[in-house]
Specification:
Elements lengths: L11 H10 L4 E5 L1 E2 L2 E2 H11 L4 E6 L4 H9 L4 E4 L7 H29 L9 H14 L5 E4 L6 H10 L8 E5 L5 H9 E2 L11 E2 L1 H4 L4 E5 L6 H13 L1 E2 L8 E2 L3 E6 L3 H7 L4 H7 L2 E4 L10 H15 L9 H9 L5 H15 L24 H15 L4 H8 L3 H10 L3
Parallel strand pairs: 1-4, 4-5, 6-13, 6-14, 7-10, 10-13
Antiparallel strand pairs: 2-3, 8-9, 11-12
């Protein structure tokens, strides 16, 4: 009838069993049930199955029960007989709302899968401890300050915190504070009114308003001009801000996550960063480890990027040779994960078979004190550098190295080049 597939249950216990077994959009429940009360059941259903809508029916409706049912999350509360003609339209609206909620939940699930903590690759203790800290703060509205070197994945952490927070259904907005000059940054952050400056033909929302009820990620917060620091502090403390060119304050509800590779505590002591803003931002600090501090994660990350860029370039996924991985694990990685990602992308593009250290750029071997000091490693790296210079021409490489061709072949075999 009317295209609905109907399941029946005589008790609350049977009804909950059906909900756990089948995909149900709407529950129509009496108030008086053999093992409980339909009004109280509504709260339990909405708690366990938030996308399911509940319509409560009763033969003896009371205002008190009606108010309680709606407070408990019921879609509607009807008295039998009086509203008989309303049942089908209400069921239609309730099922429509349930379908929409299910779509939203599916989308949230996909976003969480893509941007949640499961997306952060690594098994090292240093990384695991930081993920645990981030998980604990994610469910709050607390401001978070992410610290660490460039390329350690601060935005990835910020996204994971957002998508595992109560604000996950709202916007995650990221603003790089180093990407704009002071005046432009103020306009991007706070927005402007029509006529605020030459060329402002209409009003424009800033990043703050775009992030309303969601999360605003302020990357490179240490680059924020001292004047803008005072305006940002006001937002953090009161939720109030002014668009450029307006004199009336606006209100915004935003969760802030900031990130920097600078020592803000030291800069606040020196007077180049406001102390009050630093204390307001650093309620909950997370210091992300550099790749040098989590070298055990390099194979996992490298394999992930190899798969990613093989698909991107439509190439067969190459194998990693032992010498390639050894060089990766001995590198200093000043650019951290971002540098590793770029190196893997370049190597996959150049690879015609397996990934070998000969594919790595020559400047990759110009290292600091983290370079191996043993003579064999230095000799191997130098031979690789010369071979790359000659494009693999061994006769020319032997000439430049001032060694015999037979000696070069022996070295190539010895070092598995």
């Amino acid at each position: 009838m009317e295209g609905y597939h109907v399941l029946q249950a005589g008790t609350i216990k049977e009804g909950l069993a059906l909900l756990r077994k089948d995909s149900i959009q709407v529950v129509v429940s009496d108030v008086k049930l053999p093992d409980g009360n339909g009004v109280d059941l509504t709260m339990k259903i909405k708690s366990e199955f938030p996308s399911v809508e509940v319509v409560v029916l009763t033969a003896y409706g009371t205002i008190e029960d009606g108010v309680k049912a709606i407070k408990n999350g019921a879609f509607d509360y009807l008295t039998k007989g009086d509203h008989q003609e309303k049942i089908l339209p209400i069921l239609s609206k309730a099922s429509g709302k349930a379908l929409l909620q299910q779509k939203v939940m599916n989308l949230e699930s996909k976003l969480q899968e893509r941007f949640g903590f499961e997306n952060i690759l690594g098994v090292s203790k240093a990384l695991s401890e930081n993920i645990e800290l981030a998980r604990k703060v994610a469910g709050t509205n607390t401001t978070v300050l992410l610290l660490g070197e460039t390329g350690t994945g601060k935005e990835v952490f910020a996204q994971a915190i957002h998508y595992e927070s109560p604000r996950k259904a709202k916007a995650f907005v990221a603003l790089n504070c180093s990407a704009f000059a002071k005046d432009l940054l103020e306009n991007e952050l706070f927005g402007h009114s029509e006529g605020a400056f030459t060329g402002a033909l209409k009003s424009k929302k800033g990043y703050l308003e775009e992030a309303h009820e969601g999360t605003l990620f302020l990357d490179e917060i240490g680059e924020l001009n001292i004047d803008l620091q005072a305006k940002l502090l006001r937002v953090l403390e009161t939720g109030e801000f002014y668009r450029v060119g307006e004199s009336k304050p606006r209100q915004v509800n935003v969760r802030f996550i900031a990130a920097t590779n600078r020592n803000l505590e030291r800069e606040s002591e020196a007077g180049s960063f406001r102390k009050d803003l630093y204390y307001r931002l650093s309620v909950f600090n997370i210091l992300l480890p550099s790749l040098r501090q989590r070298t055990e994660d390099i194979p996992l990350l490298a394999n992930h990027f190899i798969t990613q860029f093989s698909l991107k370039t439509n190439k067969k996924e190459p194998q990693i040779s032992p010498d390639f991985m050894k060089v990766l694990q001995h590198h200093s990685w000043k650019g951290n994960i971002r540098e590793l990602k770029n190196i893997i992308e370049r190597s996959v593009i150049l690879a015609e078979g397996s990934l070998t250290s000969s594919l790595l750029p020559s400047d990759f071997f110009i290292e600091d004190s983290s370079t191996p000091f043993d003579l064999a490693s230095i000799e191997k790296m130098h031979i690789l550098k010369v071979l790359r210079h000659t494009g693999g021409n061994k006769t020319e490489a032997a000439r430049l190295l001032n060694i015999g061709l037979t000696t070069l072949y022996r070295k190539i075999e010895e070092y598995s080049l």
